[in-house]
Amino acid sequence: MALLEAEHVVMRFGGVVALDNASVDVDPGLVTGLIGPNGAGKTTLFNVVTGLLPPTSGAVKFDGVDITRATVAKRSQMGIARTFQKLEAFNTLSAFDNVRVAVEQNHRAKWKHRRVSDVAHEMLGKVGLDDVADVTVGTLPTGSARLVELARALACRPRVLLLDEPSSGLNEEETSSIGQLLLELVADKDNDLAVLLVEHDMSFVMGVCARIHVLDFGKIIAVGTPFEVQGNEAVRAAYLGGDEFRGAYAEMDE
Amino acid sequence: MKHFRWLICLLAVFALVAAACGGNDDDDSGAAAPDVAPTEAPDDEMDDDMDDEMDESMDDEMDDDMDDEMDESMDDEMDDEMDESMDDDMDDDEPEPVATEEPEVDPCEAVDLEATDIGITSDTITVLVMADVGSPLAPGLFQGSIDGVKAWADHVNSEGGLACRQVEVIEHDSAINPTETTNGFLVACEEAFALVGTTALFALDTTDLQSCPDAAGNDIGVPDFAYITTEPPHQCSVVTFATSRPNSECPYAGTGPRAVQSQVGHVQWLLENVESNLNGVYLVPSDLPSTIASTMPQLRSFQELGIVIDGEPGVSGFTTQSEYGAYIQVMRDADSNFAYTGSDDQSMIKWRSEAEAQGLDVDSIIWMCQLACYTPSFLEAGDVIENTYIWLWFLPFDEVDHNQELADFMVAIDNPFPPAWAAGSWADGVLFEQVVNGIVAEGGPNAVTRQAVLDGARSLTSFDVNGWWSPADYSTTENIMPCFMLMQVQNNDFVRVHPTAPGELDCDADNVVGLTKDWGAEFGG
Amino acid sequence: MIFGLRRSVVAATLLATLGAVVLAVLTWKGSQVTSESFLVTTYIGLFLGALWAMYATGLVVVYTTTGVFNFAQGAIGVFSAFLYWELHVNRGWHSILALFVVVCLFAPALGVTLDAVIMRRLRTASLVVQLMVTVAIMVLLLSVVGDIWEADTPRRVPYLFGINNGIDLGPSQLPWHRLIVFAVAIAIAVSMRFLLRRTRIGTAMRAVVDNRELAALNGARPNVVSSTSWALGSMMGALGGILIAPELGLDPATLNNVVIIAFAAAAFGALRNLPMAVIGAMLIGLLRAHTGAWLDFGPDFRFAHLAVAPLILLFVVVALPQARLEVGRLAHHLRRHERYTKWWEGLFGCGVVILLAVVFSGGWLDFGIWDPGAWGSRELNSANEAMALALIGLSLVPLIGWAGQINFAPLAFAGFGAFVYLKLAGDTGNGYWILLVGLLCAPLGALVALPAARLRGLYLALMTMAFAQAMSLIFFPHPWVMPIIGTGRQFPHIELFGVTFDDRRGFFLLMVCVFAIFVYGLVLLRRSRYGRRWMAINDSQAASATLGVPVVWTKVVVYAVSASMAGIAGVFWATVSGNVDSVQGFDLLIGFNIVLLVAAAGVSIPMAGIFLIFIPLFKGFGLRLEDAGNVDFLVTLLDIMTTYGPGLMVLGMVFNPRGAIFEMGRGFSPILPWRSDARAEIAAENAQKREPEIGELGLERPFNPEEVIAIDRRLGILDDVVPKEGYGTARS
Predict the structure, then answer these.
(1) Whole-number mean pLDDT of chain B?
(2) d(C-alpha B129, C-alpha B153), whole Å
(3) How far is C480 from B346, CA to CA, in rounded Å?
(4) Does the distance separating the beta carbons of C333 and A136 come in below 8 Å?
(5) Can you give the residue range of the structural domain that contains A134?
(6) Do A82 and C546 touch (CB under 8 A)?
(7) Is A37–C719 a contact, with Cβ atoms under 8 angstroms apart?
(8) Contact at 8 Å (CB) between C518 and A60?
(9) Residue C258: CB partners within 8 Å, gap ≥ 6?
(10) Which of A23, B88, C165, C502 could form a disulfide with C493 if both were Cys (CB 3.0 to 4.6 A apart)?
C-alpha cells in the first residue's frame, strides 16, 4: 500500500475544473514526479493533499488513514511537509529561525536528545545555507529562500515531502546538489521518506524520479517510469508538440 | 525608499511630541497661552514668597480698620476716575495691572493692598474659567462660558475692579475629559483664587477641588462658582456654588433614592390657561446617566400634576430624524396633545420636522422645550418650530431695558444673541463679585481670602444676579429657583407669553415640586 | 465547503433567531402593534437601511476592485456634507449646483487624489498598513473638518427634496425626500452591480484586484481602474453624507460613526457581494427600528437597541465559512540580518526608561532657555493618564507588531480589566489582585478572537471593532459594572508591598516600573518560540500551517496575551483618574488613536515598544514648557501636531511599511558602539542595487522580451517550454 494516496480528487473553482478525478500515489523510499504543462493542476493537487484546499470530492489517504477532513496543521504533524511554488518563507525571520519554527512546532521534529538549534543548523547545513543563517529571508535571493523552505520542510522530519518546483531560481550546480540530496534522503531507510516532486526542469525530474505522474487539464494522463512516460503519446501531445520533452530526454541520455 | 527614512523619523518625532501633548487639550493650550504666559513665568517663585509673607501678615490684616472707610468711598469716586483712564486698556482683552499708574486720590490707596491668598496679589485677582471647549473633533463646545467670564472681568475692571484689584482670567479647556477637568482643578488650586463660570461635564472627581490648600496651608478647597454641575460629586462638592442650581439632595451616594426639586410652573400655567388635560410624550436625553438623572425628576413631577405621559423614549445625538417617527406614532396612537423635550434644540427640530413629514396635526399639540431651545439656530429651523413654548429662569436677552445687569451683560458680551453658557458664566462672575464685595464691605479689601469667600457664599440665602435671574438659595443644594418666564415662538421670534409684563418673572410658590426617587432606575428607555 | 457554508449559516441563523425571540419576549414593551404602527416602523427601518446601504455600496465597490477596505468612507461623507453646507447654506448656492459640485466634482477629485497619492502604493502592503492608512485618512479628514467648521456654530443641512409632502399612507405619509433617497440608494447599488458584472471596465476592475499583472497584460490599465473605483466610492460616500446629514444633524463624530453600521452591512455581503450588503443594511435598519419601537431594555441596558449593527457583524463572522489560507502575498524587504535583542540590552533599555522618567518628571534636565523644573500635580496627572494609555499601547505590540493582527478594542479590554479589578479588590485597592486580572482578561481576548480567527484578518479587525462598540453600548453603561459614586474614588489608590500609591509622583513611578516590566517581558517573549511563531503566521499563514502551527489557535493565544496585558493596564488607567465615566471612557476613537500610534511606529522589534514611554514624558514635559511661558510657537506647533501628527505618521507607512520606529532604529543603531553588525548592514545595503519592480514597468512603455520572462517567472506561469539557459542566470 502506498504511503500517500489521493483518490479520485475533483476540485472545482466556480465553473473551472482544476482537478478532474485525479489519483496519485506516493511510495516511501523513492522520489515520485508530478509533471504537466502550466495550469495542469499540479499545485492545486499539492494544496488538496496538504489541506490548504478542501476538495470538491475525492479522498486523501495517508498511511491508510483518510485525512481528507484533517486540518493543515494536523497533516503536518502526521508527517506531510511541503514547499511552495510561490515563496512562502517567513520573510521577517532569519533563515535559522525559519527552520527553528518548524523544529519547535512539529512534534515529529522533536528529535531525541537534540537541541532545537542543533537540528536547525544541521538542516541549514544540508541545503548549504550555513553562512546566511542569520540573514532575514525576505532579503535573500529567491533561490536561497527556496532552499530555506526546503530546509524548513526537512526539519519537520516528514514522511512525505512535497516539493513544488524546488529548482526554480537555482543555478545548475545548486539544482544538481538538491537532486543529490533528495536521492540520499530517500535512500536512507531510517528516514522512511517519500518525495513527491513537481518540476518543470525535465532533466532534473528524469534524473531523480523513480515514478512519474503526468497531469494535464486536471486529469492524470500517464503514470510510469521516466522511460515509459517519455514514450507516451498523450504526454507528448500535452507538451507543445513534445519538442521540449525530447530535448530533455536527449539531454538526460548524455 | 531610503529618501523617506529621515522624513519619517521626523514625522515620528513630531507625532510623539504631539501625542505627548495630548489629544484633547490642544485648543486650550493654543488659546490660553497668550494670556497665561506673561503672568505665569514668575509664579513658582512668587508662590513661595507669598507663602512666607502670608503666614506672617494674614492674621493682622483681617482686622484692619482702614477697610471700612475705603469701601464707602470706593464705588462712587473710583468709577469716574477709572472709566476715563482705563477704557483704552480695557478694549484690548488684556487688562494691565494699573495700580502704579493710579492717581493719588484712589481710595484703595488708603489701604496697603496685600496678597491675601493664592491667586490674589496687591493689584490682581486671578480667576480660572474652565469649560469643555472641546476635543479636536468638536472644538468650541462651551466657548460661550469663557467669553462670558472674560466679558464679566472686563466689565468689572472697567468699573474699578474687584476688591481694589484687577480681575485676571486664566482659561482652561476641560475638553470633555475627566483628566483635563481634574487638571483644571489642579491649576486653579495653584494659580487662581477661584474658579468662575465652570462648565465641565465630566467633573467626576472633585477631591482635588475640595482639598486644595490655601495660602495658610489649610485644605479648605478652591471656591468654584460653576454654571452647570452634572455629576453628583460636583453637585455635592462643598466648595461649588452653581448658578444653574443642582436642585438635589447632598450628600448623595451616587445610587439610590435622592430628593430632587423640579420647576413645573410653566406646565402649571399651561394646565390653568391653555389646556386642562395634557397627555403626551417626554423625550429623555439618554446619552449619560447624569442627563437621565437630571431630567427624570421633572418628568415625574409633570405626572404629579396630572399630565399623562404616553411615552418617555430616550434620545441621543445619534437618533436620526426618521427614528423620531416612532415617537410620533406613539403620539398618534395615544392622541397626544403635549410634547416636551428634555434634550436640546436639535431634538425638538427633528421631532417637529418629522411630525410634519408624517402628517401629524402639529397645531393641536403643545410643543415645549427648555432653555436649550433658546438659541438662534432654533429659529433658523424656520416655520417648523412655530408655536413651540420655551421657559427660562431668567429674563430673555431682549429685555435690556428692564434690568441693568442684563443690559451690562449684553453690552459686554457684544453678541446680539449670546449662548446661554455665556449668561450662566456671567452670572457666576456676578455671584463671585457679590460675595467678594460683601467681604470687602465687612473686612476691607485685605479680608478677601478663599476661606472668607467660601463662608460668604455658603451663607448666601438669596442671589438673583441683580434681578436678572430667578432668586436662589446658595446655602443648600436642594432648593430650586422658584421663578420662571414663558415664551413662545411666534412668527419665527421668541415672544413672551407669561408673565405678560416685560422684566417680570413668575415666582409662585406652586411652581416647585419635590420628589424622592431612585432616578437612575426610573428611566425605561 | 458548500456544505460547511450552509451548515454554519443555518446554525448561526437559528441561534440568532432564537436569541432575538427570547430577547423580544423578555423585553416586550407591551405597546399595541397595529398594522399602521408596524407599517410606519418598517418604513423608518427601510429608509435607515437605504442610507446605510449607500455607504456600504461604496465600501463594497472599493473593496472588490482595489482590495482596500476603506475606513475613511464615513469621513469622506462628513467632509462632503460640511462642504455642501458651506456652499448651499452658508454661501447660498442653489442646492442642485452645490450638490453637483460636491458629489460630481469634489468627491471624485478627492477619490482620484487619494488613489494616486496613497492607495495605489498599498496594494502589496500588509493588512495592518492598509487598514491603518485608511483609518489615518479618516482621522485626518475629521480633524480638517473640525478645524474649518468649528463646533460653536450649530448647522443644519436642509432636506434635498423637501420633507413635507409625499405619498399618503393612510394617516401618515411617505415624504418625497425619503422615497427618492431610497430609490437612489437602490439605483446606485443596482447600477454598481451592473457595472461590475456586466461591463468591460467592471470585469477589468475585478480582474485587477485578483491579479494586477495578468490584468495588465490583458490590456486593462490598473491605475485607471483603481482611480475609477476610488472616484466612485468617494462619490457614494459624499452622497451618503449629504443625504444622512439632515437626518442626523451636522456633527462630525456622529455622522462618521454611522459608517460602522455600514461596515456591518458590508460584512453581511462578505465584503464583496453587493446585493447581500444592501440586504444587510436593510436588515439592520429594520431590526433597529423595530427594536426601538417594541422593545424596552430598561435603564440598565438603555443603549442596547443601538447594538444591532455589532451583533449583526458577530452573526456574520460566525456564519462565514472558514477562509482559505492565502498564499503568494510577497512583501519586499531591504536586506538585513535578523538580530534578537540581547537580554542585557533589554535590561539596559528598561533602565533607560526608568531613568528618563525620573529625570523628566523630576525636572533634573536643564533645557537651557526653557528650564522646565519639576512636574507639578497637573503635569503628573496628565502624564499618568498618558502613561496608562502607553501601557495599553504596549499590549498591542505582540498583536500588531508581531502577529500582524488588528485590534480596535484595546480600551474595551482595558475597561474589562478595570471592571474585574473593581469586583475583586473592591475598595481595598489591594494591588496583588492585578495579577489575577491579567489571568481573567485572557479568556475574554480569546473569546473575541475565536469566531473571527478562522477568517481573514480584516474580519478580526471588524470583529474587535464590533466588540468594542457592543461593550460600550451594553456592558459598561450597566450600573452594576462600574457603579457611579457620589464622592471620592470609584477606584481606590493601589496598595502594593505595604505602600499606598496615593501620591501622583509615586503612582507615576509605579507605572513606569510596570512599563519596564512589560517591555522586558516582551523582549523575552520575542526571543521565545511563541514570538517566532507569531512572526511566522504574520509572514505566511499557509506555510506556518504546513509546518504544523495551529494558525487559528495561535491567533487566539496572541489575542489572549494582548487582552491580558491590556486588562492589567486598564487597572492603572482607571486608577489614574479614580473615576471612570462608563459611557465616554471607552470611546472607540481613543482606541483608534492608540492603535494608530502603535501601528505607525511599526513595533516589530520589542525594544521599539519603548517609544511609548515618550508619550507620557512629552505630555508632562509639554505642559511644563507651556507653563514656563514664551514658547508660543512651540505650543502652536504641538497643537497642529496633536491634531495631524498621528495621522500623518501613519501615512508615512505608505512609503515605509515597517514603520517609523523601525526605520529610526535602523538609522540610529549604528551609533551604538557594540552594533558593528548594524554598521556593516548599512554599508552592504548601500552597495546593493535594488531590482526594478515588475509591476512598475510596462504600464508606461511596452515590455521588452526579458521583462516578459521576468513577469512570467514572478507570476509563476513560467512554462515548461522556457529554454533551459534561462535558468540559473536570472535570479541567483
Answers:
(1) 80
(2) 11
(3) 32
(4) yes
(5) 88-157
(6) yes
(7) yes
(8) no
(9) C51, C52, C55, C74, C77, C244, C248
(10) C502
Regarding chains A and C, contact by 3 or more CB pairs under 8 A is answered as yes
Distance between CA atoms of residues C440 and C435, nearest Å? 9
Min distance A203 CA to chain C CA atoms (Å): 10
How many domains is chain A built from? Answer: 2
Shared domain check, C503 and C388? yes
Q: What is the DSSP string of A32-89?
A: EEEE-STTSSHHHHHHHHHTSS--SEEEEEETTEE-TT--HHHHHHHTEEE--SS---
Q: What is the mean pLDDT of chain C?
A: 77
| Chain C environment of A115 (Cβ under 8 Å) | none
Contact C242, C103 (CB under 8 A): yes
What is the model's pLDDT at position C731? 32
Given this model, what pLDDT does residue C466 score?
86
Q: In terms of residue numbers, what domain contains C418?
A: 379-614
Judge whether residue A105 has pLDDT over 60.
yes
Same domain, A140 and A182: no
Domain boundary among A116, A140, A157: A157
Residues contacting residue B409 through CB under 8 Å, at least 6 positions apart = B151, B152, B418, B422, B423, B426, B468
| pLDDT tens by residue, B408-452 | 999 999 989 998 999 999 999 999 999 999 999 888 888 899 999
A141, C194, C566, C653 from B1: Cα distances, Å: 19, 40, 34, 11
Give the three-class secondary structure for B226: strand
C546–A167 CB contact, under 8 Å: no
Please say whether the beta carbons of B432 and B194 come within 8 A.
yes
Last residue of a domain, one of A124, A141, A157: A157
Give the burial class of C121: count Cβ atoms within 10 A of its Cβ; 0-12 exposed, 13-18 middle, 19 or more buried.
middle
Residue B431, pLDDT score: 95
Chain A residues with CB inside 8 Å of C727's CB? 167-168, 170-172, 175, 201
Q: Are B374 and B450 in contact (CB under 8 A)?
A: no
Helix axes C588-601, B2-20, angle to 10 degrees: 140
**Degrees to nearest 5, angle at CA A196 with A194 and A199:** 145
Residues of A in contact with C4 (CB under 8 A): 54
Structural domains in chain C (count): 3
Q: Tell me what percent of the residues of chain C surpass a pLDDT of 90.
A: 12
C306 touches chain B (CB under 8 A): yes
Among B333, B357, B525, select the one facing C37 at the smallest CB separation. B333
Facing B183 at nearest CB: one of C31, C289, C378: C378
pLDDT over 70 at C629, yes or no:
no
pLDDT for the residue numbered C215: 61
Within 13 A of B199's CA, how many CA atoms are on the CB side? 29
Q: Which residue of A has its CA nearest to C536?
A: A90
Q: pLDDT of C570-611, one tens digit each?
A: 999 888 877 776 655 556 666 777 777 777 766 666 666 677
pLDDT band, very low/low/confident/very high, at B124 (cuts 50, 70, 90): very high
Q: What is the pTM of this model?
A: 0.82
Does residue A175 belong to the interface with chain C, where contact is any CB pair within 8 Å?
yes
Residue A174 has which C-alpha cell? Answer: 545548486
In a domain, C213, yes or no: yes
* List of domains in chain B: 24-56+66-93+107-242+404-458 (3.40.50.2300), 258-393+478-522 (3.40.50.2300)
What strand order describes the sheet that includes A65-66?
Answer: A16-26, A4-13, A57-62, A65-66
Query: Strand pairing partners for B372?
Result: none
Interface predicted TM-score (ipTM): 0.85
- B16 contacts in chain C (CB < 8 Å): 611, 614-615, 618, 645
Instruction: Dump pLDDT digits (tens) for B274-296.
Output: 999 999 999 998 877 788 888 99
CATH number at residue A230: 3.40.50.300
Longest dimension (CA), chain B: 80
Residue C714 has a CB neighbour count (10 Å cut-off) of 16
The reply to whether A179 and A225 lie within a common domain is yes
